[in-house]
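RECORD TYPE: protein structure
NAME: Glycine zipper 2TM domain-containing protein
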Amino acid sequence: MKSSIKTLALIAVIATSLSACADMTPAQRNTATGVVVGGVAGNLLGKDTGATLGGAALGGVIGSQIR
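PREDICTED:
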């Protein structure tokens, strides 16, 4: 039961976050994508909060420079 509630909540969060991107410029979308990808990569590599935040910051900077 708990698993299905968590899954439903995760799907709702993902759907809400994707709909929030509808009015973004391409630069904003690239920055947001970079933050997410960098945060995940930082977490996988460093396995702590500092690595996650550092990866998200670096990913945001890189994503904002992509055109």
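COMMENT: The two ends are 45 Å apart (CA to CA).
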